[in-house]
Amino acid sequence: MTATTLFVVRHGRTALNAEGRLRGHLDVPLDAVGQQEAARLGELFAAVPLAIVVTSPLVRAKSTGETIAAAAQTCCAVDDRLIDRDYGTFRGETRESIEARFGSVDAAPGVEPIAALQARAVAAVEEVVDASAGRPCLLVAHDALNRVLVSALVPEVGNPDHLAQPTGCWNELRRDRSWSAVVIGASAGDGHLPTR
């Protein structure tokens, strides 16, 4: 089996991120900080020979992915399976307010189950990686999805709830016989560089 590199990126910041509110399927744009984070990610990945950039359909992820794809001179595609976790009627609320009422976000009625989120994320990755013919590929998605995806592919990283995924961060995973983590939760400018 040919070794494959997968970069899992979180979109840049939005106003709702800055306010600590759950975004879910709310389609909010990047704020000024998020645009700067996307630009720095573009600079970081410009020299990586990416086969493709695949993003969530939400504008915050698409804008981030399009910036990276333009810098890397590769194509950018959308995969609906990479959309953020569905928080139902609780989107736009704070995690703390939901936890105060229900004990956890997972227990709130109408919130997408973690198992369903994980299944669609892993299915999307398998399809993208299989189509990449061994070349590096990059996904741009969301906090909840990225944490669940990375921990599903590389169980050694531990509980997804403890996996830091700040806006504008990136993870590098490598698959030989199985997936391993090369970089987790790095940010542009922190000294970490993606494998070229």
Question: What structural keywords apply?
Answer:
single chain; 196 residues; alpha/beta; Rossmann fold; six-stranded mixed β-sheet; 35% helix; globular
Examine the secondary-structure arrangement and name the CATH architecture.
3-Layer(aba) Sandwich
Largest sheet: 6 strands, mixed
Structural class comes to alpha/beta
- What would the average pLDDT be, to the nearest integer? 96
Helix fraction by DSSP (H/I, runs of at least 4): 25-40%
CATH overall fold name:
Rossmann fold
What is the count of DSSP helices, taking H or I runs of 4+ residues? 6
Could you describe the 3D structure shown?
The protein is α/β, with parallel strands linked by helices. The chain has 6 helices and 6 strands. It has helices at 15-18, 32-45, 59-72, 95-102, 114-131, 143-153; strands at 4-10, 52-55, 76-78, 137-141, 169-175, 179-187. It has a 6-stranded mixed sheet, with helices on both faces. β5 (169-175) and β6 (179-187) form a beta hairpin.
List the helices and strands and how they pair.
Blueprint: E1 4-10, H1 15-18, H2 32-45, E2 52-55, H3 59-72, E3 76-78, H4 95-102, H5 114-131, E4 137-141, H6 143-153, E5 169-175, E6 179-187
Parallel strand pairs: 1-4, 2-3, 2-4
Antiparallel strand pairs: 1-5, 5-6
Helix pairs in contact: 2-3, 5-6
